[in-house]
Amino acid sequence: MKIKDIIFFGIILLAAALCRLVIPDSLPNFSPIAAIALFSGACISDRRLSLALPLAALFLSDLVLGLHGTMLFTYAGFLGIFLIGRYFKPSLGLSMIMTSLAGSVFFYLLTNFGYWLLYAPEKTLGGIYKAYFDAIPFFRNTVAGDLFFSTILFGFFFIYIKITVVRLEKSVVTK
C-alpha cells in the first residue's frame, strides 16, 4: 500500500473513530469500532497496521470515555471481529452485511458473558439469561452501528478502488 493510500485510509478511520466520541449517550453501542476492526482485517494487508488501527482507536477513545472492568472481553470481542474480517475478506454487499452481523453477534455474546461472569449477582443459567436479555437494547444499537459504519468504510474503499482502476486504465490507454 502506498503512503498516500495509508494516509487516505488513516483519515477515514480516524474520522470514524472520532464518531465514537461524539455520538450521543442516547445511542449506546452505536459505534464505528467494530466496523473499523472488520474493515482493517479485510482490507489492510499489513498485519501489524491492520490490527493496530482498531485497537488504537478503541484504546484512545476508552481513555477519553473511561476505562471499565469488562475491557478484556470488549477487546477480545473486537479482536474476534478483526479475525472475521481477516478470514472471510468481505466486500461491499451481502458478504459485508453477513460478516458485520456475525461480528455483532460474537461481540454481544462475548461481552455479555463477561458482564455476567464479573458483575452479575446470580452465577446461574437464569442469571446469564438475564444478562443477555437485559442487553438486547444495546445489541440493536450495536447491529445498527456496525452495519452503518461498515457500509461507509467498505463503500469508500469500493469507490476508491474504482477510481484507482479508472486512473490506471486511462494511463495505460494514453501511453
Question: How would you describe the overall organization of this protein?
Answer:
By secondary structure, the protein is mainly α. The protein contains seven helices and no strands. The chain has helices at 3-22, 33-43, 47-65, 71-88, 94-119, 125-134, 136-174. Helix 2 (33-43) packs antiparallel against helix 3. It starts with a helix and ends with a helix. The mean pLDDT is 88.
Describe the secondary-structure layout.
Blueprint: H1 3-22, H2 33-43, H3 47-65, H4 71-88, H5 94-119, H6 125-134, H7 136-174
Helix pairs in contact: 1-3, 2-3, 2-4, 2-7, 3-4, 4-5, 5-6, 5-7
Q: What structural class do the secondary elements suggest?
A: mainly alpha
Tell me, rounded to a whole number, the average pLDDT: 88
Low-pLDDT segments: none
Which range best describes the helical content: under 10%, 10-25%, 25-40%, 40-55%, 55-70% or over 70%? over 70%
Number of domains: 1
Q: What's the main sheet like?
A: none
Give the SSE order as H and E letters. HHHHHHH
Share of β-strand residues: under 5%
Count of discrete alpha- or pi-helical segments spanning 4 or more residues: 7
Distance between the amino and carboxyl termini: 24 Å
Rg value: 18 Å
Total count of strands: 0
The coarse overall form would be elongated
Oligomer: single chain
Briefly characterize the structure:
The chain has 175 residues and is mainly alpha-helical.
Essential attributes:
single chain; 175 residues; mainly alpha; 7 helices
